[in-house]
Amino acid sequence: xxxxxxxxxxxxxxxxxxxxxxxxxxxxxxxxxxxxxxxxxxxxxxxxxxxxxxxxxxxxxxxxxxxxxxxxxxxxxxxxxxxxxxxxxxxxxxxxxxxxxxxxxxxxxxxxxxxxxxxxxxxxxxxxxxxxxxxxxxxxxxxxxxxxxxxxxxxxxxxxxxxxxxxxxxxxxxxxxxxxxxxxxxxxxxxxxxxxxxxxxxxxxxxxxxxxxxxxxxxxxxxxxxxxxxxxxxxxxxxxxxxxxxxxxxxxxxxxxxxxxxxxxxxxxxxxxxx
Length: 275
Known about the structure:
It is a single chain. By secondary structure, this protein is α/β, with parallel strands linked by helices. The protein is built from nine helices and twelve strands. The strands form three sheets. Strands 8-7-6-9-10-12-11 form a seven-stranded mixed β-sheet, with helices on both faces. Strands 3-4-5 form a three-stranded mixed β-sheet, with helices on one face. Strand 7 (154-158), helix 6 (162-174) and strand 8 (181-184) form a beta-alpha-beta unit. It is globular and about 60 Å long.
């Protein structure tokens, strides 16, 4: 039973698709070789014990993983809700507290997990500790928060959605990082960032290419996600004049890129948290 439950959670967490109750019941029945009745009973039990939850989106009911318990999103990053303690399993584990919000970036979409994996590789590729991070399109703020917990000196989290800005500020406060993470609705006019993260769709990524190039430190990295596998080449082509791809990551049809700058633009100032 524990194996079936973990497999169900894995299916819902990594597929990138939305499952109605009957969708996941049929999928589990088919993949695990059990009856529809037994499959439904297990899923209802997982909803009862808090492993899964039912959400209503525009009149449609979907079954989704519940984040009422610690959930590992990458090699180092584990997220958990307020009030739920997490005891690190590894010495370099990073614990991020996230409230249950409507903003993107809770960890239930592959692009969030891919971004975190690419960030971790970036720390192994370049000496990023003690420098600044820009999280463009921050959503819940998870990437900015994780970046400073990984070792960045401070981070600027930007989103044009006022609700995302509110949610990100709440999450920054939950993690007691107000002095290291600033959340804003405005893109900075200048700055020098050793880590830039952008989990956005390709047209938006294309629009920010010059901004990212002008604000990337020579010894920094750029993490891009938010696009599907068939869109990878177009994103690579768009950024080829300014950045070199170091690694490509894939999960369930979605992708992320880890890049380094080809050149360094003259950058007069660094980013400072507003007092």
